[in-house]
């Protein structure tokens, strides 16, 4: 669904919003399988991060710490990695919505 220098996002199977973990996110050393809702939540979370405000509030940090749907799992990204991830996720969500629109039009 989307690729960048540091990663890719792949859809396996259908796009129905159920508990099937059929979206694979690979970014640098991260590989994560996500269900439809968790993938959309991740994209929203990444899109809504204001990196400038984060670093203003945490001046000694060099990475943005990002929570995930799992309370035991979080990731940290440098600002340039966050921009790349945001772009990659945005393209994937746009394609996912396009696939959904086509599927619904066929039904």
Structure characterization notes:
With 107 residues, this protein is an alpha+beta fold. The longest helix is centred in the last third of the chain and has 28 residues, at 79-106. The chain contains three helices and six strands, in the order ββββααββα. The chain is 44% helix and 26% strand. The strands form two sheets. Strands 1-2-3-4 form a four-stranded antiparallel β-sheet. It has a two-stranded antiparallel sheet with strand order 5-6. Helix 1 packs across helix 3. 16% of the residues are buried. A hairpin with a 2-residue loop joins strand 3 and strand 4. It has helices at 36-47, 51-57, 79-106, and strands spanning 2-3, 7-11, 21-27, 30-35, 64-67, 74-77.
Strands, total number: 6
Number of helices: 3
Percent in helix: 40-55%
Distance between the termini: 22 Å
Q: Looking across the biggest beta sheet, what order are the strands in? A: 1-2-3-4
Shape: elongated
Instruction: Please outline the major beta sheet.
Output: 4 strands, antiparallel
> What share of residues are in beta strands?
25-35%
Helix and strand run:
EEEEHHEEH
Stretches with pLDDT under 50, minimum 5 residues: none
What is the alpha-carbon Rg in Å?
A: 15 Å
- Please identify the structural class as seen in this structure: alpha+beta
- The pLDDT mean sits at 84
């Amino acid at each position: 669904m989307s690729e960048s220098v540091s990663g890719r996002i792949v859809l396996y199977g259908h796009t129905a919003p159920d508990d099937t973990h059929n979206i694979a996110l690979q970014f640098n050393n991260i590989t994560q399988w996500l269900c439809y809702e968790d993938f959309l939540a991740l994209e929203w979370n990444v899109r809504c991060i204001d990196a400038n405000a984060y670093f203003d509030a945490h001046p000694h940090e060099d990475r943005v710490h990002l929570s995930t749907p799992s309370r035991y799992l979080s990731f940290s990204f440098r600002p340039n990695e966050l921009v790349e991830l945001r772009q990659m996720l945005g393209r994937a969500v746009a394609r996912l919505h396009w696939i959904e629109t086509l599927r619904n039009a066929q039904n």
